[in-house]
Amino acid sequence: MSIEKTVNSINSTNWYSKFIKNGVAVGETPTGVDPNVELRIVTGLVSSGGSISYSDFLINPDLTSFEFNTEVLWSPALSTTGGDYYQITFGSTMSLSILFQFWTEYTSNGFSGDGVYILNSSNAAVFKSTTSPGPKGPGSDQWFPVRVIYNKNAANTWTVIINGTTVLTYNDPNAQTWQQVANNKGVTVAAHSGGGFQMSLSLRKLGLAYNAMFPILTATTSTMPQKFYPSADDSTFSSNRAAYARTLYPRITNVATAAQITKQKLVYNRHDASSRMERLKLQAIGQSSMRLKETETLQFKAPNVNDVREALSRTRSQGYVVPPKCQNH
Questions:
Q1: Residue 231 near residue 238 (C-beta atoms within 8 A)
Q2: 269 pLDDT above the threshold of 60
Q3: Which residues pair with 117 in a beta bridge?
Q4: Which residues contact 138 (CB under 8 A, 6 or more apart)?
Q5: Residue pLDDT, tens place only, 108-165
Q6: Residue-level pLDDT at 254
Q7: Which helix (H) or strand (E) is 159 found in, with range?
Q8: Beta strand pairing status for 48-58 and 85-90?
Q9: Can you tell me the distance from the alpha carbon of 180 to that of 182, in angstroms, rounded to the nearest whole number?
Q10: Alpha helices in 209-304 (DSSP H)
Q11: Fewest Cβ atoms closer than 10 Å to its Cβ: which of 50, 82, 186, 274?
């Protein structure tokens, strides 16, 4: 059984510690006061690019929706109204990008001037919105929010909102394929300052929240039962069960169900004896407490059926029990 859960991977107070900087962004130190810590991606230099990336966002068939948020501040580096572009890319093995194009004269590979574009893995434009990609021009230096929403169950899978206005909706015909590609993960924000249209661009308040289907324990099986003597009065069981769940959930895919994964041997490679025993104990506790049926409840003590069987045997034999040494003869 599965249930949809919401996971907040990134928020406005921790994003700058989770993203890796690349290009000209490497030399930029985040500034500002939390939660308005900001990072400059490009500084207006000629033909320079910078990016930040977060690789722990897994795109798999159990993903149902997500929302990526940020605030953008950009301005032309020259005394013109033009700038180059920035883009937000989701996925690594098979990517999809939202590109915000400020270069009005650029026409190549499916591009035709400024606007908001959907790019495929080959960085070719497959869809364009003619709505402005955001405030621009001298004197327009201001922070503005950008939201990218993905919902594979919605008719319009992708939605882009700038300054509270929806500028793009796109019904992605490859959404299911995109989620089926193995090891497809990550989100990257990149910007480029060109030769004739230099621009500077900073980001702040990045956030990523997603909904996905997770295998669950039911309301009855998820509750830890009360402990009685001689149960150990510690958290060994619950902590090992929680650790097993943390390693289990990220591995769930459409071809490997929860039941199949819990049967897999998760102890492998070389370990010292104590580490191996610790991992085996964690695996045993996790498997035994998570492979429960819908109607079962979790309990520390198994029912004692031997006393009942022995009593019945003695009653039916008028108190006589065959000695153990004679039972196999």
A1: no
A2: no
A3: 99, 128
A4: 75, 76, 79, 80, 81
A5: 767 777 889 999 999 888 999 878 777 665 555 688 999 999 998 877 799 999 999 9
A6: 39
A7: strand 158-162
A8: unpaired
A9: 6
A10: 236-248, 258-262, 273-290
A11: 274
Distance separating alpha carbons of residues 70 and 6, to the nearest angstrom: 19
Kindly list the structural domains of the chain, giving each domain's residue range(s) and its CATH number in brackets, ordered by start.
Answer: 2-215 (2.60.120.200), 217-300 (no CATH)
Of 283, 243, 285, the closest CA to residue 265 belongs to 283
- Give the separation between CA 172 and CA 210, rounded to whole angstroms: 18
59, two tokens: 């795109």
CA distance 318 to 204: 83
Distances (CA, A) of 65 to 7, 61, 159, 207, 211: 11, 11, 11, 14, 5
Specify the amino acid at residue 209.
A
**Phi (first) and psi of residue 200, to 5 degrees:** -110, 145
Separation of alpha carbons 173 and 166, rounded Å: 20
Using an 8 Å Cβ cutoff, are 165 and 158 in contact? no
Give the torsion sign (CA, 203, 160, 67, 142): positive
Give the list of residues 6+ apart from residue 325 with CB closer than 8 angstroms, or none: none
Q: Are 193 and 199 in contact (CB under 8 A)?
A: yes
> Which candidate, 87, 56, 90, places its Cα nearest to that of 179?
90
pLDDT at res. 256: 46
pTM of the prediction? 0.66
pLDDT value of position 217: 53
